[in-house]
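Schema walk-through. Below, the input block comes first and the output block second. Nothing else is stored per chain. Lengths vary across the set, and this one has 152 residues.
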Amino acid sequence: MSENMIPTSGAFGVDRIHRLPVRVYYEDTDFSGVVYHARYLHFFERGRTDSLRCLGVSHTELATQADPLALAVRRMNVEFVRAAKVDDALVVETIYRPQQGARLMLDQVLRRDGEIIATAAVQAVCMDPSGCAKRPPKSMAQAWLPYVMAEN
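--- output ---
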């Protein structure tokens, strides 16, 4: 095995949507082989984290900068459309929406072969170690801006 192997962080398409392929493992499912509802949140989290990584924003760097910050989900509205199953190859799509102060707005779609499995409307917030909301650093906002899509 190559020492240079690193996990993929997915990629942004020309349509400004970040896509991250994920696989459903047995550990993600209940006894029937259907994905347990809480695991969808894990897939969405990976999509958000890796989309930020593609923008050059890492949670580690945010936490260790001079004015440390963290991102936390403030609100998430999830709609479960179809069941995902063990061994499914899924794609997490992350769509950036206009920032609102300290709030970062995203839409996410989980697909299997183009078919929608679940959707999430996400509101995340930047906050300092004491839990106070803070605007994201300028560098983060600037990296985010080219990928922002207006609401439909």
